[in-house]
Write a structure and sequence with these properties.
Low-confidence stretches: none
Number of helices: 2
Strand content: 15-25%
Strand order of the largest sheet: 1-2-3-4
Number of strands: 4
Mean pLDDT: 90
Order of helices and strands: HHEEEE
Distance between the termini: 78 Å
Radius of gyration: 25 Å
């Protein structure tokens, strides 16, 4: 009488199905991971812009007008007292437009071709009561522009 031994291990079809599932998950996860990595790098840029916006807002509250044109990080630090780490990681340039208070930062070094070389723009909008609302925009893709 022949005895059948129990099978051990996986069949070829089972292994191929597992490999296909892993491939599908990787195809979805890798682009999402890349986008989140770029967003994390851009957080440094938006945080620096927020610091400059606070200083511009304080200047406006004290003087009743926005500061004059500030063409680079040295002028921003001298006039507003805020250091901007241009050239350190992800910020290639920083400027404040005179009389309007619009803040513009150039972006570099994120590793994303659709973001590097683009700009973030933070524009003030003053209400009748004197409050300042900041509006984010820029030339970066919409997915990377910060929410309010």
């Amino acid at each position: 009488m022949l005895r059948m031994r129990g099978q051990k291990g996986f069949t070829l079809i089972e292994l191929l199905i597992v490999i296909a599932i892993i491939g599908i998950l990787a195809a979805i996860a890798i682009p999402m991971y890349r986008a989140q990595t770029v967003k994390a790098k851009l957080t440094e840029v938006s945080n620096s812009m927020s610091n400059v916006a606070s200083a511009v807002g304080a200047y406006y509250q004290d003087e009743g007008v926005y500061p004059g044109a500030l063409a680079d990080q040295t002028q921003i630090k001298t006039s507003l007292g805020v250091a901007v780490p241009v050239g350190v990681k992800y910020i290639s340039s920083a400027a404040v437009t005179g009389a309007t208070g619009v803040i513009t930062f150039g972006i570099t070094g994120t590793g994303e071709s659709t973001v590097d070389g683009q700009t973030y723009v933070l524009s003030p909008s003053t209400t009748a009561s004197g409050a300042i609302n900041w509006i984010w925009s820029g030339s970066v893709p919409a997915a990377y522009i910060p929410k309010k």
